[in-house]
Design goal:
With 215 residues, the chain is mainly alpha-helical. It is 45% helix and 9% strand. The two termini are 37 Å apart. GO terms for molecular function: N-acetylglucosaminylphosphatidylinositol deacetylase activity.
């Protein structure tokens, strides 16, 4: 029976390697499928966009949105960060706020474009409805933004959400990226996979959140 497992493992590694090869050989490997409408540049003199990233806690930007931020910066867009709480559950609010500024330095986002709210009644917290890790504050950010978009009602605000993936998809790496890009290019709701162009910078940004290295 051992040979069946070895054959399956070899097949999985081969699929993984083929998927990685396909991603790296695509014309724009940082965003799949290529030629996207995702945050396309404006026309005219001013081509860059102002993009507001709404997160629940300091460290969400590094842990979940690093490939997105790096992609947007590589396209020359102006990224702003609105963090809906200091993440003060363990009394580390001020430390975590400072760590967020350091992480944003790594992403070359100016400090004046980083806003941290700490409103007792505003613990509402742009994730999808599952919030990636299932954290209720991540889910609240999603619902808060949906409510805002619904009430705004003018349809002039573009909003995107970070899709939560199951464990298998999360850890199948290039295989998932490649298969997802084939499936979603034909779907009605546009979905793009942003491939991390600089994993070392994500790591550095996450290092800035030293108080959260608790696992
Ligand atoms: Zn979080």
């Amino acid at each position: 029976m051992a040979w069946i497992w070895m054959l399956s493992a070899a097949g999985a590694v081969l699929l993984w390697a083929i998927s990685l090869g396909r991603i790296l050989s695509s014309p724009a490997p940082s965003c799949l499928p290529p030629s996207p409408h995702f945050m396309s540049p404006l026309r005219g003199d001013r081509r860059s966009r102002n993009v507001l990233l709404v997160i629940a806690h300091p460290d969400d930007e590094s842990m979940f949105f690093a490939p997105t931020i790096l992609f947007l910066k590589s396209k020359g867009h102006n990224v702003h960060v609105l963090c809906m709480s200091q993440g003060n559950a363990d009394g580390l609010g001020n430390t975590r706020k400072e760590e967020l500024y350091h992480a944003c330095d790594t992403f070359k986002i100016q400090r004046k474009q980083v806003q941290v709210l700490d409103h007792l009644k505003l613990q509402i917290l742009t994730f999808d409805s599952h919030g990636v890790s299932g954290h209720p504050n991540h889910q609240d950010v999603h619902h808060g933004i949906c409510k805002f978009l619904h009430e705004n009602g003018q349809g002039n605000i573009e909003a995107w959400q970070l899709a939560s993936l199951n464990l298998f998809r999360k850890y199948s790496g290039p295989l998932d990226i490649w298969l997802a890009s084939r499936i979603t290019s034909s779907s009605k709701d546009p979905t793009y996979t942003l491939v991390n162009s600089s994993p070392s910078r994500s790591y550095q940004a996450m290092v800035a959140h030293r108080s959260q290295w608790v696992w």
